[in-house]
Structure formats: structure tokens, C-alpha cells
């Protein structure tokens, strides 16, 4: 049985659309979700969190989410008039435990002289909340560096900013992981080429490894691939053996050879194999990859070589050897992009992603049963 879907339409000026290679003219804005119901226990819920009505500028992208130790959910995004606007900032919003309403976004990072970019929020095992974000020094992302702030009160207040990586072209996009030995591994990437419509072949993913005893960050080796790669995200399959997936490099022209990049490390992330094409399609777009409490692996990606739709979740129960379960969270004529996933203590998977030409932030809640068996959609909230 098909459930009704609420359609939401918004008008945009041309300046807020994707570059022409990613824009499909003549399509009325809306969301198409085909929802099958049965007696299974799985469930998907989706809500529209923020759109152009929030006065942080029309651009809201990408969004990142963290489940804090006090039970709150915290989202960050960078906002402004557009991707390359000068007066941008990183904004934070909170969904308090037990509440259904996200707080008004507050600017938590800003530079009066430079544009900011991707923000990442993450709470370490010691309770310290980290905010990593990009500062762009020139006209393109190839001029960027990475700065950070920390919070000791669950993201209520933040420290002064401090430099994390000063090498040109360095950026962040995804949350760190905690290795079995206790150290942290923060995904980074170095974007090359100084081209707004192409990621150069020498762009590469890498990581910063944090020594918890000495409180120092050190860079690892890079993931090299034929067409370049950026925005890696890694999972430790077993002690010191890691698998990473990354966004492919190249341009946004139509292709039949667009695949996510996969690499392995066997020394705790210090060195990486050459990046190879995986079996997952990739339209030059970000993805996320996490290990769930059950031990299964979750990959969130756009199952398309050329468009950022559909947004798909996949499960592996055998450590990345096979991926038998796949299900679309969102599909239709829009861009559903830059997913970030976190699992809360109740086992629910919270997924944040942007849509509508990077002006709308969406929050999905799902579980493993829904990915494996399907189920009902409890609500689609549209404003």
C-alpha cells in the first residue's frame, strides 16, 4: 500500500542553484518518496529542520550531527549567501533530549576577513566537544586551512579558535572515530586544482591521528587514486585494520564510470593502500560510513553516478565483504546530499542531509529493521 506524501514547494533565485552541470531545468520542486508498508517492525521518520526562512542566509550546507552525552542532538552547518560568499559562518542548533523542536541556529564560528566552510561537530570519550571547520583564504577551496574550537559544557559555549592544520588546501567534512587503542582518527582531505567545477587528480584523502596521552595531532599518509578523492570516512573493522570510503574526484559531467573510492589500512590508519573504485556509485558527492552497535556497517551514499538522488542506506554484516541490504531514504527530482549518520543509545540511526539546492536541512530517524525489511513511515513533516 502506498502512503500519501506531503509535497513542499519553494521558489529559488538562480544564484542559489547548483552549477549547470548539476542542475536539471523544468522540474517542479517537491519530494517523491515511495513508501511500502507491511507488518515489519522497521520505521523511518523524516522531518524538515530548516529552510530558507531561517535568517542565516539561504545557503545551508553541509550539515553535520552529533549525539551528545546529555542526550541532546547537536547539528552544525555553514551558512551565508552562497558557497563562495565572503560573509559565511558556522551555525549550531540543538534538539534537547525529549524535545521535538530544534533551537534557533546560533553562529558559533566566524572570521571577519575570510570565508568559512564545512563544519564538523564531535564529542570525544572524555566529554570534550570538538568543532572542526574550514577557513578559505583565497577564491577556491584549494586555499583552505582547518581550525578548531572545543567545548566543555556540551556545546553550550565554545573556546577561542585555534589552528589545527596550516597546510594549504586542507579541509574537513566527517567526524573522527575512536580506535581500539584509544587514539582518535579525524578524516581530512587536501583539495587541489583551484577549479570550482573539478576536483584535481592529485587531491587526496588523509587523516589526523590524535595521541590521547600526549594530546597531539599527527597527519597520516594519503589515499591516492587515479582521478583523485576527497572527504574520506573510515571504520576500524578489527584492531589496526581499517576500511575507508571516499568521494571520487573529477568533474560533474555525465559519466558511466563514477564510483566511490575504497582504500584499506593495516597499521591503524598511518598508511593506506591505493584508492580503487568500489562497487558503490558516486556522483562526485559526499558519503558517510559508520559501525553500528550491532557490529554491522552502515554506508550512506547517492546511488547514482551523475545525480545526488536517491539517498541510499546500505548494511553489511560481514565486515564490508557484502552489502545485501539497501534502501532509499529519499528519492525524486532534488539533490539529497552530504549525509551524516550517528547512532544513539536507543539504537536509532539519526541521519542529517541537505536538499533543495543546499537550502534545506533534513533529519531522518531509522533503524536496522527498516533497512533490512522495510516498514512504515511514521511522519514526513513539511512546513
Distance between the termini: 25 Å
The radius of gyration over CA amounts to 19 Å
Q: State the helix count.
A: 1
Number of strands: 28
Low-confidence stretches: 1-40
Mean pLDDT: 88
- List the secondary-structure elements in sequence, H or E: EEEEEEEEEEEEEEEEEEEEEEEEEEEHE
What is the strand arrangement across the widest sheet? 25-26-27-1-28
Biggest sheet, open or closed, and with what strands and sense? Answer: 5 strands, mixed
What's the SSE blueprint?
Layout: E1 42-50, E2 59-67, E3 73-80, E4 89-95, E5 106-110, E6 115-123, E7 129-136, E8 144-151, E9 162-165, E10 170-171, E11 177-178, E12 184-190, E13 198-199, E14 204-211, E15 216-219, E16 229-238, E17 241-248, E18 250-251, E19 259-265, E20 276-281, E21 288-291, E22 297-302, E23 311-316, E24 325-330, E25 337-343, E26 349-355, E27 360-366, H1 368-373, E28 375-381
Parallel strand pairs: 1-28
Antiparallel strand pairs: 1-27, 2-3, 3-4, 4-5, 6-7, 7-8, 8-9, 10-12, 11-12, 12-14, 13-18, 14-15, 16-17, 17-19, 19-20, 21-22, 22-23, 23-24, 25-26, 26-27
Amino acid at each position: 500500500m502506498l502512503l500519501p506524501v506531503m509535497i513542499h514547494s519553494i521558489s529559488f533565485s538562480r544564484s542559489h542553484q547548483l552549477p549547470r552541470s548539476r542542475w536539471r531545468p523544468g522540474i517542479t520542486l517537491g519530494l517523491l518518496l515511495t513508501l511500502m508498508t507491511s507488518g515489519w517492525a522497521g520505521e523511518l521518520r523524516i522531518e524538515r529542520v530548516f529552510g530558507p526562512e531561517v535568517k542565516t542566509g539561504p545557503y545551508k550546507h553541509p550539515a553535520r550531527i552529533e549525539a551528545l552525552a546529555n542526550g541532546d542532538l547537536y547539528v552544525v552547518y555553514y551558512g551565508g549567501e552562497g558557497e563562495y560568499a565572503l560573509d559565511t559562518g558556522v551555525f549550531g542548533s540543538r534538539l534537547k533530549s525529549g524535545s521535538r523542536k530544534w533551537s534557533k541556529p546560533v553562529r558559533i564560528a566566524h572570521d571577519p576577513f575570510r570565508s568559512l566552510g564545512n563544519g564538523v561537530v564531535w564529542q570525544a570519550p572524555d566529554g570534550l566537544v570538538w568543532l572542526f571547520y574550514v577557513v578559505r583564504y583565497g577564491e577556491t577551496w584549494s586555499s583552505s586551512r582547518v581550525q578548531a574550537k572545543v567545548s566543555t559544557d556540551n556545546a553550550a559555549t565554545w573556546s577561542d579558535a585555534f589552528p589545527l592544520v596550516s597546510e594549504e588546501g586542507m579541509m574537513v567534512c566527517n567526524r573522527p572515530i575512536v580506535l581500539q587503542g584509544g587514539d582518535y582518527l579525524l578524516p581530512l582531505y587536501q583539495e587541489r586544482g583551484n577549479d570550482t567545477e573539478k576536483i584535481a587528480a592529485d587531491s587526496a584523502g588523509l587523516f589526523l591521528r590524535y595521541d590521547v596521552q600526549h594530546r597531539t595531532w599527527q597527519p597520516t599518509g594519503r589515499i591516492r587514486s587515479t582521478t583523485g578523492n576527497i572527504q574520506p570516512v573510515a571504520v576500524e573493522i578489527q584492531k589496526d585494520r581499517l576500511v575507508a570510503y571516499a568521494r571520487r574526484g573529477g568533474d560533474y559531467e555525465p559519466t558511466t564510470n563514477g564510483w566511490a573510492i575504497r582504500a584499506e589500512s593495516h597499521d591503524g590508519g598511518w598508511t593506506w593502500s591505493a584508492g580503487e573504485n568500489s562497487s558503490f556509485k558516486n556522483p562526485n558527492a559526499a558519503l558517510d560510513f559508520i559501525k553500528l552497535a550491532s557490529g554491522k556497517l552502515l554506508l550512506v551514499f547517492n546511488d547514482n553516478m551523475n545525480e545526488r538522488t536517491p539517498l541510499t542506506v546500505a548494511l553489511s554484516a560481514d565486515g564490508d565483504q557484502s552489502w545485501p541490504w539497501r534502501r532509499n531514504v529519499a528519492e525524486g527530482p532534488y539533490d539529497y546530499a552530504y549525509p551524516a549518520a550517528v547512532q544513539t543509545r536507543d539504537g536509532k540511526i539519526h541521519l542529517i542531509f541537505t536538499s533543495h539546492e543546499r537550502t534545506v536541512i533534513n533529519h531522518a530517524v531509522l533503524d536496522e529493521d527498516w533497512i533490512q525489511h522495510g516498514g512504515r513511515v511514521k511522519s514526513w513533516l513539511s512546513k
